[in-house]
Amino acid sequence: MLISNTYNQYFPQLTQEQLARNATKKVICGMSGGVDSSVSAFILQQQGYQVEGLFMKNWEEDDDTDYCTAAADLADAQAVCDKLGIKLHKINFAAEYWDNVFEHFLTEYKAGRTPNPDILCNKEIKFKAFLEYAAEDLGAHYIATGHYVRRAGDDENAKLLRGLDANKDQSYFLYTLSHKQVGQSLFPVGEIEKPIVRAIAEELGLITAKKKDSTGICFIGERKFKDFLARYLPAQPGDIRTVDGEIIGRHDGLMYHTLGQRKGLGIGGLKNAGDEAWYVVDKDVENNELIVAQGHDHPRLFSKGLIASQLHWVDREPIRELVRCTVKTRYRQQDIPCVIEPIDDETIRVIFDEPQSAVTPGQSAVFYLGEICLGGGIIEERIK
Question: What residue stretches are annotated with the tRNA-specific 2-thiouridylase MnmA-like C-terminal domain (predicted)?
Fold first, then answer.
């Protein structure tokens, strides 16, 4: 049996009764070929569960490049499962990913918005297609993933909590889960910090111990985003216009730019422009114009609040009264104190305590009450 002193240091020893109870539960752990899912499977083993792994292939390579690492990731996942002595299942969800994630991703970019495909991937693939397959075809009581989040409460009334490691917390990406889905899922590494995860993997001699974290779009890899997007959407170049109405350049396509962007605008050397950097402050989709202004503190960058729709609340009914909480409008952002004002069951107005920069339509606004992730929605527009 594999032993990790670091695991023993950070996880309480379970009683024989707890181990016996867990031994009746089958858990299918999503194995990505990374260190987080590898250590998750080990933790579940130590806690007495019947553990099996599952590798999902959700993108079909359609070029000759090395961007998609599915083959290497599968080999690493298999090596980890062999080391742990557990079975590895393999499943292809590429059709589901294309229909339910990627086509929406393209539609949003075509409309000049900036979507977050990882959130939709979690909703449609990892906690829907995977969860259903594990339960119905493999007889699982739970699924498990390497996400840095925690759950509280019993299976029927589970709440989604931030991960213990504030730097790695991934609750922002999981706000679309229902309390039922949270109750059917286990998040072993959410209870520890990333350096501890790597320390456990090194002690076990896992091939993934020093593997770099993936940072690309969900299941597509770390290819150049602009080149990738251009393969699916025709570019529509247009003018770059200042907030004062002056045309000062050309853009390659609105879809390549996002609010608050500074780099890659190709603006420089303008007479009487001053030395301050240029920032994207708006998109005029109707006229295909990119609106820019100088200075990171330009008023046009800031919003007093936002309107959000496509709402989802993890463990509650639609909000029908004022709620004071905090919000994140992008990943790894500091919590923003705010008030939620319901417009109807499908739409809310959110007012920040202080104006915020680069609030981006198409991105998600995710709400928190302390450690609890309440849910969120898609940003439809900024309140300027």
Answer: 303-379
